[in-house]
UniProtKB/TrEMBL annotation:
PROSITE patterns: PHOSPHOFRUCTOKINASE (PS00433). Coiled coil: none annotated. GO terms for molecular function: 6-phosphofructokinase activity; AMP binding; ATP binding; fructose-6-phosphate binding; identical protein binding; metal ion binding; monosaccharide binding. Residues 19-324, 383-668 form the Phosphofructokinase domain. Its EC number is 2.7.1.11. Belongs to the phosphofructokinase type A (PFKA) family. ATP-dependent PFK group I subfamily. Eukaryotic two domain clade "E" sub-subfamily. This is 6-phosphofructokinase. It comes from Stegastes partitus. GO terms for cellular component: 6-phosphofructokinase complex; membrane. It comes from the Eukaryota. It holds the Pfam family PFK. It is an enzyme of class 2 (transferase). It catalyses: beta-D-fructose 6-phosphate + ATP = beta-D-fructose 1,6-bisphosphate + ADP + H(+).
């Protein structure tokens, strides 16, 4: 942990303070991770932390519903869906008498700090409780239930909220706890349905949750490549039945064997009439005669294990909530911890509750679902090539699909390059059309093929292929090798005029080691693979007891996967390249695990980045732990390997790849128009090389309680051109030659 961060936490003190945490309203995956973070952060700073079971009902009833929490009591909660402390809708708390009982129960335990995890209704109730607090204490004093000293000691109630809702329907935060996990459940079902639908050439109408907010429907439609989507925020105009049936009919004519229609449960038409799955089914059967089925997902979306994203999000929010309570004064208004862009921030609770939720940020993405988008743009004379470079990463295919279809919609002719720059100089280039990328969104790996070959040794042949195919712009999707490729092409512009074209890179690597972006395409899928494996390993250890697992993750010299995977899986320690460690640190960790085996949590989990230390290898650490823990615990080791690169992309990576590729194509279109002069494209050196990167680049130190690991509001991503003098300085900072030497070892 960096010294400034460590000093910050050491200066925090919660001594003498009591914090209570409760979950209220509908449950959501990730709530347990938030509860765990509040408890452990509270205990870490010296505060007493209490569970309030069964939400506000437990607060009103008191007794055993309010129990002090311990460090061990929140063990093994990360991977559990729902909320283990229970949630209930309490009518009694809505009455003044109910809130009076709740206040009495809190005062008896000196609880003046309340952390509420729930929706807008739960948070509104908490704020009302806070506003009435002084009056409630006065009533309790008058009734003789508490004394004057208790009134003085508990004079102020501090409230901090966290939003747990799978609908993502709360204003002020880009993502709510549980949304990403719900998307996982939806996409799992859609992927399974797709196989049976293709077998029988069926149309499936799926209803997802979202009574007032169409986020789940919209994003899942993008993530699975649905034909049509209905959301409450965008009621279809009159005649939508004709448009939809025409679209479905055209897709079948193009030899597509299935149709997917996503409907939010609150979908309505322009006359405020409900658009139901059964109505859509009857319409398709009546007009087109297609074999059509309806699937209503229901509460499946609320269940299951939380995703890696939800675990990290909830943990970050829980830590920030405790910090907010520690720093609150008598005049501090109730706040809600939100995710804005890339940061966990505190916003005034009631301002967020009172805001009207609008889905404007997502509605632009409807273009991906409509084949008619290509017909609304005039044809251009520009040819754009897209290729993958480096190792495969889940989500690459979604990015290629998005780039191809948006490029065609912009009027460009799109070309696909097979096998990266190796295929480029060999002439493996062909035109790719709208229908060629159908069904690519859910495919893992790289369907175009990808190689680590850099262009530096083949510049002459690559320039020749650019001339042969009249390529006017390049979109390169890949990791660190892709970044270095762009720099090589940039430096070659002085010798090859053919490279003076707009070139844009999308970061796609599971290692997440591309400078300038918080997250790369593929990292989320890899994290979920790591976390799922760790969950199973921990479950096996629960039966054997007294066992420590050493798990090696990928990532090269970047510790992102190990660090964030360790946080999401509840690891005891993580070893990464960025944070040096020695034999004393290893010994201290062994001693920690030895002491841990004396508690009720008799297992250990250690994650090691593959290149964290050339001497302290996975085998060395395994042997050291085995020897030093002899008689106390035994060890097992697991090298996860390339399973971290495989599998279907997560909903986040599908959506992320789709969005950043669209932004990249928009940048390419603008730059092409600006640089087209005299019948040819001659891009200015200072404004024609770009990375479609996410807002800010941050370091990821091991042991941090809250990590800024993604910018969820990707609709605000801009592809900002990098100036030539910045690129030269950027390359020296990256020390690419040193990196290549390390990689080759």
């Amino acid at each position: 942990m960096p010294s400034d961060t460590k000093k910050f936490f050491e200066n925090l003190s919660g001594a003498g303070k009591c914090i209570a945490v409760l979950t209220s309203g509908g449950d959501a995956q990730g709530m347990n991770a938030a509860v765990r973070a509040v408890v452990r952060m509270g205990i870490y700073v010296g505060a007493k932390v209490y569970f309030i079971h069964e939400g506000y009902q437990g607060m009103v009833d008191g007794g055993d519903n309010i129990k002090e929490a311990t460090w061990e009591s929140v063990s093994s909660m990360l991977q559990v869906g729902g909320t283990v402390i229970g949630s209930a809708r309490c009518k009694e708390f809505r009455t003044h008498e109910g809130r009076l009982k709740a206040a009495h129960n809190l005062v008896q335990r000196s609880i003046t700090n309340l952390c509420v995890i729930g929706g807008d209704g739960s948070l509104t109730g908490a704020n009302l409780f806070r506003e009435e607090w002084s009056g409630l204490l006065t009533e309790l004093l008058q009734q003789g239930l508490i004394d004057e000293e208790a009134v003085q000691k508990n004079s102020t109630l501090h409230i901090v909220g966290m939003v747990g809702s799978i609908d993502n329907d709360f204003c002020g935060t880009d993502m709510t706890i549980g949304t990403d996990s719900a998307l996982h459940r939806i996409i799992e079902v859609v992927d399974a349905i797709t196989t049976t639908a293709q077998s029988h050439q069926r149309t499936f109408v799926l209803e997802v949750m979202g009574r007032h907010c169409g986020y789940l429907a919209m994003v899942s439609a993008l993530a699975c490549g649905a034909d049509w989507v209905f959301i409450p925020e965008m009621p279809p105009e009159d005649g939508w039945e004709d448009s939809m049936c025409q679209k479905l009919s055209e897709n079948r004519a193009d030899k597509k064997r299935l149709n997917i229609i996503i409907v939010a449960e609150g979908a309505i038409d322009c006359h405020n009439k409900a658009v139901t799955p059964d109505y859509i089914k009857d319409l398709v059967v009546r007009r087109l005669g297609f074999d059509t089925r309806v699937t209503i997902l229901g509460h499946v979306q609320r269940g299951g294990t939380p995703s890696a994203f939800d675990r990290i999000l909830a943990s970050r929010m829980g830590v920030e909530a405790v910090l907010a309570l520690l720093e609150a004064s008598a005049n501090t208004p109730a706040c809600v911890v939100s995710l804005v862009g890339n940061q966990a921030v505190r916003l005034p609770l009631m301002e967020c509750v009172q805001m009207v939720s609008v889905c404007a940020a997502e509605t632009e993405d409807i273009v991906f679902l409509s084949i008619t988008a290509a017909l609304r743009h005039p044809q251009s004379s520009f040819n754009v090539a897209v290729l993958n470079v480096g190792a495969p990463a889940a989500g690459m295919n979604a990015a290629v699909r998005s780039a191809v279809r948006v490029g065609i919609a912009e009027g460009h002719k799109m070309f696909a390059v097979s096998d990266g720059f190796e295929g480029f100089y060999k002439g493996q280039i062909k035109e790719i059309k709208w229908g060629d990328v159908g069904g690519w969104t859910g495919q893992g790996g790289s369907l175009l093929g990808t190689k680590r070959t850099l262009p530096g040794k083949h510049l002459e042949k690559i320039a020749e292929q650019i001339r042969i195919h009249n390529i006017n712009a390049l979109l390169v999707i890949g990791g660190f090798e892709a970044l270095e490729s762009l720099l090589q092409l940039y430096e070659a512009r002085a010798d090859y005029e053919d490279f003076c074209i707009p070139i844009c890179m999308l970061p796609a690597t599971i290692s997440n080691n591309v400078p300038g972006t918080d997250l790369s395409i593929g990292a989320d899928t890899s994290l979920n693979a790591i976390v799922e494996t760790c969950d199973r390993i921990k479950q096996s250890a629960s039966g054997t007891k007294r066992r420590v697992f050493i798990i090696e993750t990928m990532g090269g010299y970047c510790g992102y996967l190990a660090t964030v995977g360790g946080l999401a899986a509840g690891a005891d320690t993580v070893y990464i390249y960025e944070e040096a460690f020695d034999i004393r640190d290893l010994q201290a960790n062994v001693e920690h695990l030895t002491q841990k085996m004396k508690t009720s949590i008799q297992r250990g989990l250690v994650l090691r980045n593959e290149n964290c230390n050339e001497n302290f290898t996975t085998d060395f650490i395994y042997q050291l732990y085995s020897e030093e823990g002899r008689g106390v615990f035994d060890c097992r080791k697991n090298i996860l390997g390339h399973m971290q690169q495989g599998g279907a992309p997560s909903p986040f990576d599908r959506n992320f790849g789709t969005k950043v590729a669209a932004k990249a194509m928009q940048w390419i279109t603008r730059t092409l128009k600006d640089s087209y002069k005299g019948g040819k494209v001659t891009a200015h050196l200072k404004r024609s090389l770009s990375r479609a990167a996410v807002v800010r680049h941050l370091e990821f130190p091991r042991g941090a309680g809250f990590l800024c690991f993604k910018a969820s509001n990707t609709s605000n991503i801009t592809s900002e051109a990098v100036r030539d003098e910045q690129l030269i300085d950027f390359k020296s900072k990256l020390q690419l030659e040193e990196y290549n030497q390390q990689t080759a070892m």
